[in-house]
Amino acid sequence: MSEQAHATTGTYLRVALILVMITLIEVGVFYVPAFQGVLVPVLLVLSAVKFALVVMFYMHLKFDNRFFTFLFGGPLLLALAVIVSLLFIFYGTVRLRTGT
Amino acid sequence: MRLVLALLLLFLTACSGQFPQSVFAPRSDFSTELAGLFTNIFWWAVAVFVFVEMLLLIAIARFRARPGAAHPKPVHGHTALEIGWTLAPALILVFIAVPTMRAIFATSGHAPEGALRVEVIGHQWWWEYRYPTLNISAYNELHLPVRTAIQVDMTSADVIHSFWVPRLGGKRDLIQGRTNRIAFRADSTGEYWGQCAEFCGASHANMRLRVFVESDSAFQRWVDQQRAAPATPAKGSPAEAGERVFRRSACIGCHTIAGVAQGKVGPDLSHVGGRATIAGALFPNTTETLHRWILNAPSLKPGASMPPQNVSPQDLDALVAYLQSLK
Amino acid sequence: MTHGSTHAHEAHRTSMGVDSRKMAFWAFIGSECLLFGSLIATYLVYKGRSLVGPYPHEILNIPFTSFSTFDLLMSSLAMVLALAAVQRGDMKRGKLWLLITALLGLVFLGGQFWEFSHFVHEGLGLTTNLFGSTFYVLTGTHGAHVTVGVIWLLTLWIQALRGKLGPGNALTVEITGLYWHFVDVVWIVIFTVVYLIQ
Amino acid sequence: MKRWLTTTDHKRIGLLYFWTAFGFFLIGGLEALIIRAQLVRPDGGLGVSAETFNQLFTMHGTTMVFLALMPLSAAFFNFIIPLQIGARDVAFPRLNAFSYWVFLLGGLFLNASFIAGPLFGADRLSVAPDAGWFGYANLTSRQFSPGPNVDFWLLGLQILGIASLAAGFNFVVTILNMRAPGMRMLRLPVFTWMTLVTQFLVITAFPVITVALVLLMFDRFFGTHFFLPSGGGDPILWQHLFWMFGHPEVYILILPAMGIVSEVLPTFSKKPLFGYTVVVYSGVVIAFLGWSVWSHHMFSTGLGPIADSVFAGTTMLIAIPTGVKIFNWIATLWGGQIRFTTSLLFAVGFIAMFIIGGLSGVTHASAPSDLQQTDTYYVVAHIHYVLFGGTILGLFAGIYYWWPKMTGRLLSESLGKVHFWLTLIGMNLAFFPMHFSGLLGMPRRIYTYSADLGVARFNQLSTVGAFLIGIATLIFFWNLLRTRWRPANAPANPWDGATLEWAIPSPPPVYNFTVIPTVTSRLPLWQTERHPPMTPLPDRPPAPIHVPGGSWWPMITAFGLPIIAIGALAHLIPIVLAGAGVVIVGIYRWAYEPFEM
Ligand code: HEA
Ligand code: HEA
Ligand code: CUA
Ligand SMILES: [Cu+2]
Is residue D65 part of a domain? Predict the structure, then answer.
């Protein structure tokens, strides 16, 4: 159990602070009309950062056995691929169907 | 091996015409393309098959254990070989993939400008065809002009079905809420068989269809016939009595006969007398089958949503006479 | 059948040098990624395909859900603090933080309950439209996970109250934490994909 | 009796899996025989009704895939894996018992549908699942399938999914974490490797079908429209979710058999496996690619030319790693001293037959070509060449190979050879003609066909072949049974195998290894250039070995699941809650039970 060497209460608090700040930014961005155009990419990046922070620090993935990263990251990437390809297939065919 | 050869022989004779749903006797540009593609891949597959099975047979024939023989050399692998038998299949696959991609785009279902449009609508377990430009409809039996580009738009009124006439082309699914397309041009006249290929419930096996590819003039005659109002039976004929029975029976709740009834549950019967078959091309359209059909459709076609009709023998005769008069 | 356990140490030797339960749990979490991935994919595929309202933008309440999100993030913080305390052997703090984590989870569930009943009141039922169905099934599945997590945390807390939880059980608490943080992470995604990207 | 009900010993659980799965195999085979009898003549055959026929092929497919083949592989995972890696048991023995009981109860639940008719005011033989093994929406909606048939299917598969997932986590951890000292990943036997890959497919693919089934359940029980166009839903989404699971599933079915063959061939040709690392990595690549091809089951749904091209391409790629395996197997035989035991015959039969199925798979992969093949008997031919010619022949090879280890009794080689040749002839007679009936226009899932199609001759051949397989299977069954009355006198290593399971007596003692061996090579029992064979283990343990006792809780917890399902089926919430109660109590008692590992 070597995590303690890496993550301290201070780290946890700092991470929590960042998480809350990002959430505030997310909500802020949502309400600012100027951001409407880039809303989706900005939000996706921000939530990915939050996701990574929790996984790396709170779930100790950063400090733990590298193999856990594979055990979690592999399926995670697969899940992402599933989402992306389904979206592509469905929105792609919608366009085909309504286009010509 | 001998079995394979014997069957291969049968396979070749299969092209000779006694198989109305064979994919080996294509009669349209679409099905010809598919047959060509299949033949191409088939020969690659035969080559791979023969090569690999030969290797296998040689291995087990040559290296059977002999008593007293020395322990075999423990070979652990061979890098060049591994690379070789990775690349060789990859190369063969290129020869399969390229024509595949070409065929995918060639058969993507878009007919040239000016093609005859037909809409196919699947029902459990019968077919409805609409010709939006000709303003007519047909049921179970599709009539098409020869050497004319056809654009087929498909959808379903209920579950998923699949429209398949092997000699005219590959199958495409009929899906409620979606429109699917195929396009083809039949190159010779004749009667083509097909049937629903996607499992669609109790009578999936009985959801068959016919396509009549006709010369332009014959097709035009058929179109005119469908456009005309249904025949009015002669005064005093059995058919006229039949019309009266029809009007007072449950039939009108489900069937349309222009000017007589407008039910929508079953096929339109305005021109049922002119069809060669009934009930999803399941039975020839004869007096006898019509009798049996009306009396108890579900017993002939499991699950059919036309309930048994309680009609007296005289009424039945009249009814059938009427239906037959509707050419 | 049990014989004396002189070889107890043998059972604890593992080939990857990590505890089997923890490894199994990471595999489980990986598997859960695909569960939620499929649900999110379903939600996204059906986005904008509802035939009748209410539609997302008419009904989703961002300030309220931001609070829920904040609540869940804080519960994650409480969870790591609980684990750190248990690992230090500070069971007094450990108990406290466990309870706080569970309570924050309960607050989240209460919020979800309020949100659901509010939506139903507004006319968005499970079967109203595709948005309703995909929304309730996705967030409901997440809510079910939170519920399991809360029960699990309370179980640990009760165990701790009875003095049966100590640094020797740190691994149990750690695994509970993995589950809890994962549930939090899923919410981070849901919050963005469902609530913010309308 | 109690010892079997509460057992957590992986060897006993393996035997339980074996016999249960074999029983389901007989049932699934019986269903197939009725299907074949019905199709022996055009226009009606045996007189099986359309409704019954639909139940037969649905249950046949479902039974074979989920209740026969997967658990037959699981029998070997359970029995052999801990032995091959030098462990005393799996990582979680009670979870393992739980998997078995859930599987058994899920299987019984599914098959109970055959006799449950009267409970629903229907005839016997009328409420079994009847929408095909992939249950396409929207045929499975309440509107088009009002009865409990589809409910049985969806609830049964949910239960079975839990069993598979639990086993999946268990074996991933077992293989990674319970290896004996020195058993590095690249020293693992190939069967263990393929099992590991398979379990990764299980834990990633099963959640997807779980979601699909949950959505279907909402549609059927609560009136949502996930797959119903009438409410804006799309039946095609079901197909995507199903095949995202379904295609990995077919590799879940074949990879263990490929692993078995990779064990059997080296042993009987007295040569190490040719290209071990390549064989292992190609298995990984197959699994990886297996995730990217699912839409090849949907070429006729109109995906559009781009998606068609992509999925055709990825599908074809799988031929490469599969071919690599096949060439390495042949190279293993090449130059060996091949002993023609039954096990070897089946392994060679596997290669020979699987190639045929693989090649017809490639003709499917070409999307336009598949438009003429999909949903015809040509597909039925493909699936049986890969599933029967592949998986089943591979499993038979494994049974002949490991039966002495599992029971201490050798199977009769002469009966075995009869079994092999009858099976080989029978399967070709049954399944080869299906290529023709399919291309000549015979769709699948039809209970009757017109005599005018001209396919009656082919169907007769298929039926004869099916009954030959039936006879062969009965001979095999007899071969299994008769060993029960023979003395358990099989030697520890009857075949001169190289892997660890052969280092211990047949059948192995409860604790497996008197001392956990330290592994120094890939072939521990063989003399290789660099390594002498392992020194034999002591006959008796130098120190007492702790073996965990049994537990009731896995079985009791498992019982909660079918109770929940029955409650759902009968729309009785109290029963659902009672079942959930059983599960919760079971889990708590399980968690707090003193269980020493
Ligand atoms: C054990 C199970 C298993 C396995 C291993 C496979 C393997 C393959 N399958 Fe199969 N498949 C099924 C089980 C399996 N399948 C089932 C159950 C269905 C039907 C489901 C249903 O509808 O009910 C199905 C259906 C199915 C379809 C859909 C058909 C349709 O419904 O229209 C397709 C389409 O692409 C396909 C393709 C393939 C391919 C390309 C492979 C490849 O992996 C095969 C690779 C192997 C080889 C190619 C042979 C060896 C290779 C060489 C010797 C190298 C040289 C070769 C070349 C250069 C070609 N399969
Ligand atoms: C997974 C593996 C698997 C296996 C091993 C088999 C084995 C067999 N299958 Fe299977 N089959 C499928 C998987 C499998 N099948 C699937 C997935 C489908 C698609 C289902 C669908 O469309 O939904 C299918 C569909 C299918 C069809 C098409 C049905 C249709 O579309 O209408 C047919 C038709 O001939 C068929 C035949 C056979 C035969 C003859 C065997 C034989 O090999 C069986 C041999 C075994 C035996 C004969 C057992 C011996 C038993 C006895 C002799 C009786 C003794 C009994 C007792 C003591 C109780 N199968
Ligand atoms: Cu319509 Cu099958
Ligand atoms: Cu597939």
Answer: yes
- Confidence at B10, pLDDT banded by 50, 70, 90: low
Check whether residue A50 and residue A11 sit in a common domain.
yes
Query: D582: domain range?
Result: 556-597
Inspect the interface and report whether the beta carbons of D244 and A78 lie closer than 8 Å: no
Per-position b or e across D559-570, b if 16+ CB within 10 A of its CB? bbbbbbbbbbbe
Mutate to test the pocket of ligand 2, among D380, D446, D469 (most ligand atoms within 8 A of CB): D380
Ligand nearest to the CA of D468: 2
- What is the B202 CA–ligand 3 centroid distance (Å)? 9
pLDDT, tens digit, for every residue of A31-40?
A: 887 777 788 8
Q: Which of D421, D428, D440, D468 to mutate: most B Cβ within 10 Å?
A: D440
Q: Which two tokens stand for residue B247?
A: 């009007």
For residues D434-439, average pLDDT: 95
What is chain B's mean pLDDT, rounded? 90
Q: How many CA atoms lie within 13 A of C191 on its CB side?
A: 31
Q: Are residues D565 and D503 in the same domain?
A: no
Peptide bond into D138 cis (omega under 30): yes
Q: What gap in Å lies between CA D70 and CA D217, rounded to an integer?
A: 24
Identify whether C118 is part of a domain: yes
How far apart CA B55 and CA B49 sit, in angstroms, is: 10
The single-letter code of the amino acid at D275 is G
Per-residue pLDDT of D21-61, as tens digits, reads 999 999 999 999 999 999 999 987 788 899 999 999 999 99
Closest CA–CA distance from residue B212 to any residue of chain A (Å): 29
Which ligand is closest in space to the CA of residue D30? 2
The CATH architecture assigned to B29-106 reads Orthogonal Bundle (1.10)
Neighbours of ion ligand 4 (CB under 5 A): D 247
B116-227: CATH number = 2.60.40.420
Cβ atoms B63, D269 nearer than 8 A = yes
Superfamily name with CATH number, domain B238-325: Cupredoxins -  blue copper proteins (2.60.40.420)
pTM, rounded to two decimals: 0.95
In this prediction, residue B14 carries a pLDDT of 47
According to DSSP, the β-strands at B256-257 and B261-262 are antiparallel
Q: Do C6 and D543 touch (CB under 8 A)?
A: yes
Residues D125-154, mean pLDDT to the nearest whole number: 93
**Residue range(s) defining the domain that contains residue C89:** 32-196
Closest atom of ligand 3 to B198 CA is 2
